Amino acid sequence: MADEMTAAFEKVYNGGPSIHGTLRLPVGKPHVTVLFGPSGSGKTTILRCLAGLERPSRGRITFAGETWFDAEAGVQALPQARAIGYLFQDYALFPHLMVAGNITYAIQNLDRNARQARLEEMLRLLRLEGLEDRRPAQLSGGQQQRVALARVLARRPRLLLLDEPLSALDAPTREQVRGELRGVLRGQGIPTVCVTHDWVEALALADEVVVMGGGRVLQVGPPDEVFSRPADAEVAAIVGVETVLTGRVAERKDDLAALDVGKVRLWAVEPNGRGGEFYLCIRAEDVTLEIGTQPSSSARNHLAGRVTEISPAGPVSRVTVDCGFALTALVTRQAAQDLALMPGTPVTATVKASAVHLILR
């Protein structure tokens, strides 16, 4: 179709793995598809095949009605013909060029005035004003990331490919730049495919998550659906976050925010006091269960509910509680026996406010 990109291909390495890529995303509007999974699952190979840097062994890739690759027809469009912006993991900045030279390197085909106008636009967009005459070695990690992104966007690509865009940054910088990157991607009318193995990054950036494992696509869907309702045990092990909810801030008090999740209110620590809608992420090991409805701890969130499912998960049991939404807890098998947990058992699920991780939607 003329308004989407479709890809269904396989890349076979001699004596190595076979990578299967299946993607579909809209063209001409901001949409971020995140390829999520562990190292070695084939994420970067898919990115390189989309860019034309690798030739798939079989299959087909089309973009807005154009055929970029067709094994049967013998079509392999050159990378430059695809008008793609590719942000590499190490940013690949030229150390001998200033910031301005790095950004304008890919738009030398424009005349001088147009090139200068595009440079100034990118400097404003990525908040790089005043850094034009610095070399990459004189920049912080976050500034280098923004220069690399500015260089990619300066060409006005039709498709943006990001390979672990934040992995080279330290944790505090990554937290800051993540929000900046999200804002830039949402503000550009460019479909984006982003590779990451960081679940926080996936939730913060993605409109759609493609979970990969062993060279295969295992599950595709909206972030909250994929992380909260993994298709099988393999996906559950990869995503690693058992409960992901969407909520809206109802009130703020001190450093805490009360968020409404349907008819249930949850308290969470909110570090910046900004934003209205969030993903609320709760790991199963941070949920404790007590019989009945009388909580015995001072934790902020006490959720009355009933057990709906108990399933073995190695040395522990995975317990799902309906408390207005499906909440997952991990308890030892001995604890499950001592509490006599079974479907229908009334329990109180307790979650500390500090254990509810907020990610801006």
Number of strands: 21
What profile does the largest beta sheet have? 6 strands, mixed
Assess the beta-strand content as a share of residues. 35-45%
Helix content: 10-25%
Q: Give the oligomeric state.
A: single chain
User: What sequence of helices (H) and strands (E) makes up the elements?
Assistant: EEEHEEEEHHHEHEHEEHHEEEEEEEEHEE
Protein architecture, described:
With 361 residues, the protein is of the alpha+beta class. It is 24% helix and 37% strand. It has nine helices and 21 strands. It has helices spanning 43-51, 99-104, 112-125, 141-154, 171-187, 199-205, 223-228, 233-239, 333-338, and strands at residues 4-12, 18-26, 31-36, 58-63, 66-70, 75-76, 84-87, 159-163, 191-196, 208-213, 216-221, 243-253, 256-261, 264-269, 277-282, 288-291, 301-313, 316-322, 326-332, 346-351, 357-360. The strands form four sheets. The protein has a six-stranded mixed sheet with strand order 7-8-9-3-10-11, sandwiched between helices. It has a five-stranded antiparallel sheet with strand order 2-1-4-5-6, covered by helices on one side. Strand 4 (58-63) and strand 5 (66-70) form a beta hairpin. Helix 3 crosses helix 4 (141-154) and helix 4 packs parallel to helix 5 (171-187). The radius of gyration is 23 Å and the shape is globular.
